Amino acid sequence: MFDISPAEWTAVLLSLKVGLVATLVATPFGIAIAWLLARYHFWGKSLVDAVIYLPLVLPPVVTGYLLLLTFGRKGLVGGWLADHLGIVFAFRWTGAALACGIMSFPLLVRPIRLSIEAVDRRLEQAASTLGAAPWKVFLTVTLPLALPGVLAGMVLGFAKAIGEFGATITFVSNIPGETQTISAAIYTLTQVPDGDAAALRLVGVSIVISMIALVTSEWFARRATQRMHGT
Amino acid sequence: MLRVDIFKKLGDFTVDVKFVGEGRVTGLFGSSGAGKTSLVNMIAGLLKPDRGFIAVGDEVLDDTLAGIHVPPHRRRIGYVFQDARLFPHLSVSQNLHYGRRMNSVAHDGAHQDRVVDLLDIGKLLTRRTGQLSGGERQRVALGRALLMQPQLLLLDEPLGSLDSARKAEILPYLIRLRDEGGVPMVYVSHDPRELRQLAAQVVVIRRGRVAAFGDAESVLADVAPQFAD
Hints:
Chain A has about 230 residues and is mainly α. Chain A has helices at about 5-40, 45-55, 60-70, 75-85, 95-120, 120-130, 135-145, 145-165, 165-170, 180-190, 195-230. The radius of gyration of chain A is 20 Å and the shape is globular. In chain B, the strands form 2 sheets. Chain B has a 6-stranded mixed beta sheet with strand order 7-8-9-3-10-11, with helices on both faces. Chain B has a 5-stranded antiparallel beta sheet with strand order 2-1-4-5-6, covered by helices on one side. Chain B is globular.
């Protein structure tokens, strides 16, 4: 039962790589967007809000197909990136990371936004009277106090990225060793005779990964909450 | 010397205040809602006046005619809030050094020792802010403002949230600060007894305007005779 084959390991490691890269690259963007939404009122704000949440409500296949049209080798953005920067997304693991990053973005942004909204503005005022320029106030007061939300968002985003299936398989297909993540591997195994045992092993692995992610985030959140209260 | 001549509309309320503070401590006296905090926020740069002029010494901080508004982080004005506002994610020592670090002031051990001694906070340095009493928090907030070497110190009802025993604990530190600190102060309070002990001059603010201005004894005797000695 626990004898995981090299091919299965490949899918597991690829999933971890795709999930980690998607989360780490998306986090700075997520923090920036969350901060804009939490602190500013600007023209078109509700549109930005809607676009971010769109992947959550659109059928994943639609998001995947739109990604294919935009970031595919012949797509508007994908073609330019390939010709000028040599970055190719189509049918590569990087494309899987892009799909996962976009699909998990709403889950990443929301807790960060809520925690930035919860930061006491009076502490930021105190920091500015002590000589901190606005960007230093953000880095030394706002962000550290919003840290529980940032970590929660990263873990949620990572968990979503690990489990993403529809958009990824539509955009970059299901190529073992390149774009076949755990979800795609389990799906493939359920389509072949005698695939059940292998599928169950991968199900076990994905449960373990998710549990570890949740426990880790809880631990971080507890520590960060203690810091927030200055104890 | 602090020169203030400002006008600010805040909803239905207007703050229209003019005075020149010259002593070591200028007291701002008034009941709550009189506009004291709005005025202090304008001196700190947190609030921008609609019209007018604010200067500390020779440095013009606000001059709406000339289009000058120095942002709070470039004013070097220490601000001690009623609720201390210590940073909860930092230790007491990190709080104390925050202003110094943000202003890139070189570490001055002698100055730090003086401030720590003056406020008697040496034993608190390694604590988290959540472990401090109300009086200790206010002393740390004072130390944090002093260590940035401000050109002016604003104290907005620093004893306001403390009971009378704690007030009696902090007041001697404030008197020492006035006599030994060498930093001019603006002290906001609605308690004439505090002001009589600390301030040479008092500005009485009522409904956003200056109702009286002069030396502490005579002004306070007029507006709050029930507290006269």
